[in-house]
Amino acid sequence: MSSVGSGPPHVPGAREAVPLSGWPVLAPMAAYLLWWLLGVGDMIWLIAAAAMLYQWLGSRHLGIPRSLLLWGLFLVWCVASMVMIDTTGRLIGAVYRLLFYAAAACFAIHTYSARRALPLVRVTGAMTWFLACMTAGGYLALAMPELVIHTPMSWVVPQGLASNELVADMIVRRTTQWSPDLWEPQAVRPAAPFLYANTWGNVYSFVLPVAVLHLWLTRGARWWWAWAAVVAASVVPAVSTLNRGMFIGLGVVGAWAALQAVRRGRVLIVLAGVVITPLAGALWIASPSGQSLLHRLESTNSTVDRALLYRLTLEGALDSPLFGYGSPRPAPDPWLPSLGTQGQLWTVLYSNGFVGTALFLGCLLSVLALAWRRTDPVGAVMGGIVAATVVESLYYGMMTGLMVTMVAVGLVLRPDTAVGPGRRSEDGGEVTLSSRAQRRRTARRASSDRPRRRRS
């Protein structure tokens, strides 16, 4: 693989000799319910990213996939777009999003680089624990939809900061967005352990396929039945969220994985899935949960409102195509959400213009192009998650989901994760921090090893 760059000289006993550890990637996911109960919430991603950066200082174990260079340019463009911000509140929101975008890159790079500390089965196991946390939160929401939890952070955060709506939602937890006082009765949609029910659906569409992959990787293991029970139990709160986009995302992951399975010759398995999936869907539609989703589709105006919001967002982006506006802004119609919301792609387009959008999508699509080579089951699932991210960015804000996506990016680009038939080892090149110096040392070593000619 090609590589460029150089790093600091090696000092015996210095920190760079210490391999990268895996806990900054594993702990945020495996113990997510704990962070939710403590009031840390999504800030755990930023804390973990800071720990990764500390480990990287002077490290000689760091490699950066070339596809992520586009993400680096996207971060630079986000900073440049801040010149368009007109209020302090919007500046704070833009910095908050920038930190999450940077944290997502950290998760991809660390997963890619820390191969010894993050073997494939350990990462899929952590995501299965993540699914267990989501499932527990979902059942808690269904059992106690009006529960309010004052987390330890609610007693620590200053009152001035706690008055912020986002901070208040993180330190005082609610299990759902449901209220018994609505004019029209609505089904309880779990949100715990997240802020919103849509976040639950978005993350579930990424984590469930990884948990199923974990079952395949650990078949015959001691705890296999426990993980299978988690996967089965997660279905109830998942369908209760009534997330249309979640089903679309799962369909994208399934379609990508099926296409890759056909490419590696597993035609009969795919045909069986094609027959079973519609039958299972029909049975679910006939169930009370399926009827609730149909009722929501018939009674909601969200589709019409979203279409109007997206049109206004696009018109606004056309008025400021280069840098956008730096941050979402209120819509002209008071009943609509802010322009540049209700979809990560629209947030990027309105906040960072068409150049930022091209860099954002360009990174994901370049990874997807490399993932096309991975027809093995692991590559198929991880590539499907990246494809679903592109699709779901049209209608989901996905700061938390983006962390899962970037872990999938790190895994799909790692040659050591290819398992089973159809594996390919190409990762599209890598930028390492010590490669140029390493080449010089290798060349000197090779020249010194050549036999010297004797003078006649």
TrEMBL record:
GO terms for molecular function: ligase activity. The chain crosses the membrane at residues 33-56, 68-85, 91-112, 124-144, 199-217, 224-240, 246-262, 267-286, 349-372. Keywords: Ligase, Membrane, Transmembrane, Transmembrane helix. The lineage of its organism: Bacteria, Bacillati, Actinomycetota, Actinomycetes, Actinomycetales. Residues 419-456 are annotated as: Disordered. Coiled coil: none annotated. This is Lipid A core - O-antigen ligase and related enzymes.
